[in-house]
Every structure is written in C-alpha cells, then in structure tokens.
Design brief:
about 800 residues; 20 strands; disordered N terminus
C-alpha cells in the first residue's frame, strides 16, 4: 500500500518507524481545520471504501510498494542545497488565480498545471511535486511560510523535482483525481495537498501538510523531499510501474457498473435513520467535533418533513433541521457583527470556527434558513437569511454583479487583538475581541452585551478548542442567552434589550471596519455563483424582497455576458480580470442551471428559462454518461487529467449529478411529459448511484432530494395574469408563503413567456384569467383543479 507521508496510516509501523506514529490530537486538529469537505459522511467514508478504491488498491499494492517505502524512510546523506537568490519571480506571476499569485515570488520554481511543466519532467526524467490548495486556506499559508518561502527548501525542490501549483477552486478536476488517491491510500485528506507524480502524471506518494522539520512524530518536509528524490533515482522503474498500477486501480474503482438495487422510498427511510443516529440532540448538527454545517443534509430533512409533516419521523426531521439552524446561528461560527458564516466549528458547540468564509456556504445556508422560515413563519430564520444575503451583497459582490469566492481565515494582527507571536497575520484576528476593547467601545451597554454574547476577560474559547493557544484573552462572540433570558436577567423590556444589542453590534461593526480585512479571493466561479443566484432568487420570493431579485439577476447577467460563450455553447469556469481559459465543469453547468430555474420562478423572465435549457443541453452533451448514467465531472477533453470521475458524495458542495437530477426533473415538468428524455435522464442519473445509495444513502442527501421529487406527484402552479398587477402579486405572495418543494411555478401572462411555454406544453396555452381577474391553476401532471382567484381559496388548495 502506498506510504502516507505526514499523516496517519493503517500500515504496520514495523518497517517504517521513522515516518509513522499514532494519531495525536494536534495533527488531527490540523487535518480538521484543513478539510473543507469533512463532515459526518467523510468520517464514515472508510465503511463505503471497503468495497471500492481502498480495497482494490490495498490488494494491488501491499507488496509492490515496499521498496519505495524502504527508500523513502531509510537514512542517507544528501549534498547541501545551493542557496537560492533572495528575490524571485516565477511563472505563476502570469496567472489570474489569487492562490497562484500568492506563490509567484516564492524561491520555488513553480509551474502552473500544463504542458510546459509536463514536458520538462519528461525531458529531465524528474518526478513532479504537485501542491494543491486555495487562497483562503489557513494551513496552505502555514506550509507556504514554513517551506515554500525557504531558500533551503526551494533549493531541494528545484534541484530534484518539477514543481506545480494548482488552485483547487480553479481546477477541481485535477484536485479531485489526486485527492481520491490520497484518501484511498491514506484514509484521509485535506489542503494543502502534497502529491508526487511520475512524469506521465501517475501518483506514487501523497499527503497533506508537512512541517518544515520533524515534529509531532511527523517527518520534516526537507527530509521527505530528499528521501523521495533518492527513491526515484535508485528505484525509478519500479516507481513508474507502481504509478501505473495505482491509476489502473483508481480507474477500476470509478468504473463500477450501476447496481441492481431498487431506488424507492425505503432509501429515504434508511438515510433518515443514518442521519438521526449521528444527530446531536443537545447542540444540533451531526457527529462530534469538528462540526460542519452541511446544508445538503438540512435540505433532505426538510423534505422528509414535507412528505409526512404529522408523522413522528416528519416531526423529528424538522426538529433536527431547526435545532441545528438555531445552534449555528447562535454560535461563533456565525459572524454576529458583520453577517455570514465561517466554514465550520472545531468544537461541538459551533463556537470556535475555522474563520474563512466561503461563497458556497453562504448560498446554501441562506436557502436552508429561508426554507425554515417558510415552514415555521418564525422571524428568527428570516433574520439570519437576510444577515447572510446582506453580507454577500456588501462584501462579496463585484461592481459588475458577480460574486467573489471567499474571504480568508487569516488577517493582519491588530494591537491588542493579534497574538504577539504572530509577526504578520493570525487566524481570526479580524473577528475576535478582548473584553477591554468591548468595554471601551460600548460603555454602559457593555455589561448587557457581554452577558448576551459570553464575553469574558480571560477569553471564551471552550477547553480543548484552542490547542495552539491562539485565542487566549480573546472572545469569539456566541449568543449565550436568548433575548428573553437577557431581558429577565437585567429586568429590562425585551424590545429595549433587542435595540441595545443592535446598536452595540453597529458600533462594533464600525470599529471592526477599521481593522485590516482578511484577504479576499475575488475569483468569480460559475458554479458558486449559480448557488448564490438560487439563494437570492428564493429570498426574493419568500421574503417578497425586490432588491434580492435584482442582485440575483445582475449575477445571472454577469454569467451570461462574461462566462457563457453563446456561439460555442460553452460555459467557462471562472473570471478574474477577464475570463479564464478553463472551460466549465459539470458542477458549473448544474449549479447555474439550478440558479436560472429559481430565477425564472422568481421573476418570470422567460429568458432565464431559455438559457437554463441551453445550458442543460450542453451539460448533457459534454458530461452525461450514456452507458451507465450520471455525469462525469469533466468533459474528457483535457488529456492531462488521468481519470474521468463522477462525484458520489454531497458534501460542502453537492455533487453535480445530484443537482442535475433535480434540474432535469424540474425541466421535464415545464415540458408536460414525464416520459420525456430529461425525466428519463434524471432516472438514469439516480440509478447510476444505486450502489452508494443502497449502502450509505446519507452520503448523498442532495440526490435524495431528487429521489423525493421523483417519487412525489409532481405539482405545477400556473398563475394567469400580468405579473405586476396587485392581484397577481397577492396570489404569488400566498404561493410563496408555503414550503412546496415538489412544485414548479409558471406564469401565463398572455405574452412571450406564455407563448414559449405553450409551445413546450399545450396545457399552458389555454390558461387565462377568470372574469378578468388573475387566477391560479393548481395541477398535478397538468391535470388541473378549477382555477381560483382568491388567495384564501388558493391557500386551502395548497394545504390539502
């Protein structure tokens, strides 16, 4: 089995004592704080992998890799490295990715992913060192400062390897292939990801973060580099052979035939039971620390509730959903001053976060809070949704309307806030507070504020959540008490306490605004923009907020103008100071199609539906697997990507196939033909993941949402009337008040939109107002009940 360098391994330690040690808490925290996609599913991944890549690869490599292990772990002498010059500019200076530009002045002779690097490796017969990360990754920064900025380390790297840097957000295809290798051969993964490849791009050693010197029972990066270089020189042919076997095994693990398991409601029940077993009834969320929000799980739970709202299962599903949302909103993972959510919590209380803010989290969490508000009509969920959306509009939106990717966890230290041990930046420095700072800023209001948000003079990080002692004397705001509890404690009216806290947050926001901000990754990624467009479109409907519709439409226009090549029918991945050359992946198409469908239902602008159809047709042409079903993540055009893979896990971001299956089902409803090609393609996509769904269904909660839709009686609501008339708006407000996950909404306005829909769907052609009044037609498979013109009558139809 390939040796895992720098992380835990299941190999016997007897042959490789210098490289392996038992898992220790410090290293595990390092991994947890890096693993963007970690969650309850990933901790159970080994169960699923037993019949997949790990089992196949173990049987293939158990003996073949021993020679490589011996070379990598043996003691030997190497020449002293030649010092590199003190100032450098490498090939990354010509790239657009913020992550690559962060490394443009390293002494390491970095190459971007491409033929120039591959050709050099082949000509010089050198192994490739591939480093994958992203610009807001805290531990990517740590490894960069410790190793990639070191002249001594760079000299070894430049002498022995061809060094390639990849932004995983820009090239998720490259990241996915080699992360699969790292996870299959080591049992875990994260960023920065460090992989050594043969000149023909076959992996043979992989890991994540490496300290610069031997530490925590892990080998230092310099030692690892030297030993791998020696192993390559002394055992080159066997390593090349082994790399070929690794790729073969990975390819076989991806090529399994669709299972025979029947996809029915029992899979939904099994997934609910798996999720319920991992539920934390006290603090919300699933599993123990670290805790990830995983909105896809919440999406599924809200559908379980909608299927049977009066059943015990339905009630418990809603309870799990709502408690998790409330606990996250109260926790330190939620930015109480500026809005939005950090990536995840290192403790079970949602208190100490990994402080980066990702666009895809904001988008999916906003949608989850909007659904909670629709179900409960409880204003606390509306407030959190607005908090997220207003943060993104203020801090993560370009002048042209596209949404930026992320804000960093680290920021320059501030006197009294940053750890004196950090000379430049510290994680969370922008967000944390000393009690002294808050007392000074708020005066008499500080006592109430400190009580409500758990502020303490010695800091408030819970025991065990800060092993590096970064937050000593600092406070991460967490809502320790409700408004009612705070009001009772201070014997004040609730409204007075609510207003005092609001004014206090406003003061602290103004103070914080003067601090150095975290780095902003201003890439505009098509997929994540699609998710955010969905959130704004849904908010416009649920909250009756035209401003949110305008923000979503501007972003969609940006994608149409800057990232969609209408002449070639190609969507591009990203934009930064111009469009990138990287064509979109399956998730770019799927997430943007979802956003456009939601935008049509919010605006009834038929152009968004037309564009969604175009994008879906292109996604089908480029990515759909006609033999086995489902969507490959890549088109297969780029031959440097050695595997064509399908994602089978809905994690921090849902899998492309999961989102596409639901998109196809929704689009089939617009066409009034359940047996149409799109509905059939959706069923084939769902069936393609039957092995995963039958063994571990909770790994794909967003696919379960599509399955729920496919098993339900599809419902259509057609509003006949002018969309801007007061009567039409009253009917729409009534529709939007209800949580209707298995329903599509259309407008028959007597204009171009109705003509387009009528060409696709004969039933819509004849729908019109009743006695001159806007009317709602509630239909199942376009068999419609008598139209109603009164919102109360419509409410009765929708709640039956």
């Amino acid at each position: 089995m390939p040796v895992r360098l720098g992380t835990e391994t299941s190999l016997s330690l007897t042959r490789t004592p210098s490289l392996h040690s038992a898992r220790n808490s410090k290293r595990f925290l390092d991994f947890a704080r890096n693993n963007k996609n970690g969650d309850v599913t990933s901790r159970c991944e080994a169960k699923r992998a037993a019949s997949g890549a790990v089992a196949r690869m173990t049987s293939l490599f158990r003996f073949g890799i021993l020679a490589l292990i011996w070379f990598v772990t043996s003691t030997h002498t190497v020449a002293e490295p030649t010092p590199a010059p003190s100032e450098h500019t490498n090939r990354l200076a010509h790239q657009k990715s913020p992550y690559l530009l962060q490394h443009a002045h390293n002494p390491v002779d970095w190459y971007p992913w491409g033929e120039e690097a591959f050709g050099k490796a082949r000509r010089e017969n050198k192994p490739i060192f591939l480093s994958v990360g992203y610009s807001t990754c805290h531990w990517c920064h740590v490894m960069a400062h410790e190793s990639f900025e070191s002249e001594e380390v760079a000299a070894i790297m430049n002498r022995e390897f061809v060094n390639i840097k990849v932004d995983r957000e820009e090239r998720p295809d490259v990241d996915r292939v080699y992360m699969t290798f790292v996870q299959a051969t080591t049992g875990g993964g994260g960023w920065p990801m460090s992989v050594w490849l043969t000149p023909d791009l076959k992996p043979f050693v992989g890991g994540t973060y490496f300290p610069p010197d031997d530490r925590y029972g892990q080998p230092g990066f310099k030692k690892v580099l030297e030993r791998i270089a020696t192993a390559w020189k002394e055992n080159h042919e066997k390593i090349v052979e082994q790399g070929g076997k690794i790729v073969t095994a990975l390819r076989e693990s991806q090529a399994g035939a669709a299972g025979e398991s029947k996809i029915d409601a029992k899979i939904l029940d099994a997934a609910y039971e798996q999720i319920a077993r991992s539920y934390d009834p006290k603090e919300g969320g699933f599993g123990n620390a670290p805790k990830f929000p995983r909105p896809v799980t919440l999406n599924f739970l809200s559908r379980v509730y909608a299927r049977a709202p009066k059943s015990e299962v339905g009630k418990h599903a809603l309870e799990m959903d709502l408690l998790t949302l409330r606990k996250m909103a109260a926790g330190g993972m939620h930015d109480h001053i500026g809005g939005g959510f950090h990536r995840y919590s290192v403790d079970r209380y949602w208190h100490v976060p990994h402080f980066e803010k990702m666009l895809y989290d904001q988008a999916q969490l906003a949608a989850a809070y909007l659904e909670a508000f629709q179900i409960t009509q409880d204003r606390q969920y509306e407030s959190v949704a607005r908090d997220i959306l207003d943060y993104v509009a203020r801090d993560m939106t370009s002048k042209e309307g596209g949404f930026f990717s992320a804000e960093d966890a680290d920021s320059p230290v501030v006197a009294g806030i940053g750890d004196p041990g950090h000379s430049e930046t510290a994680e969370g420095a922008f967000y944390v507070w000393t009690k002294k700072d808050i007392d000074s800023a708020l005066g008499d209001a500080a006592e109430i504020f400190n009580f409500h948000y758990g502020v303490q003079s010695h800091g408030n990080a819970p025991e065990g959540s800060d092993p590096q002692d970064e937050f000593r004397g600092k406070n991460i705001l967490i809502q320790r008490h409700t408004i009612v509890e705070t009001a009772q404690h201070f014997r004040k009216p609730e409204d007075a306490v609510r207003d005092l806290l609001r004014q206090s947050r406003k003061k602290l926001f103004a103070i914080r605004k003067k601090r150095p901000r975290p780095h902003l990754d201003d890439k505009i990624i098509a997929a994540w923009n699609g998710l955010m467009i969905s959130a704004y479109a849904r908010a416009a409907r649920v909250l009756d907020e035209p401003r949110y519709l305008e923000i979503g439409a501007r972003a969609a226009n940006f994608i149409r103008k800057q990232l969609w090549d209408a002449s070639r029918k190609i969507l591009y991945r990203s934009y930064r100071e111009g469009r990138s050359d990287i064509e979109g992946f399956a998730d770019d198409y799927a997430f943007v199609v979802q956003g456009l469908l939601d935008l049509y239902e919010a605006s009834f602008d038929i152009e968004w539906l037309k564009l969604a159809v175009e994008l879906q047709d292109t996604q089908d042409r480029l990515f759909f697997d006609e033999k086995q079903g489902g969507y490959f993540s890549t088109s297969g055009k780029d031959k440097s990507v050695v595997l064509r893979m399908k994602d089978d896990n809905d994690s921090a971001e849902p899998a492309a196939s999961s989102v596409a299956a639901l998109n196809l089902l929704r689009l089939s409803q617009f066409c009034d033909d359940p047996a149409a090609a799109r509905a059939e393609r959706a069923r084939k996509t769902i069936d393609a993941f039957a092995p995963t769904l039958s063994h571990f269904p909770s790994a794909m909660p967003q696919m379960l949402v599509a399955i729920d839709y496919s098993l339900s009686e599809p419902r259509q609501i057609v509003i006949a009337g002018k969309k801007d008339s007061p009567e039409t708006k009253a009917i729409l407000r009534e529709v939007h008040r209800h949580f209707l996950p298995d329903t599509i909404l259309l407008l028959a306005d007597g204009a171009e939109g109705q003509k387009y829909l009528g060409d696709k769907n004969e039933a819509i052609r004849a729908m019109s107002m009743v006695d001159g009044k806007p009317a709602a037609y509630v239909c199942e498979n376009f068999t419609c009940k008598a139209p109603v013109t009164d919102p109360k009558a419509l409410s009765e139809l929708l709640t039956r």
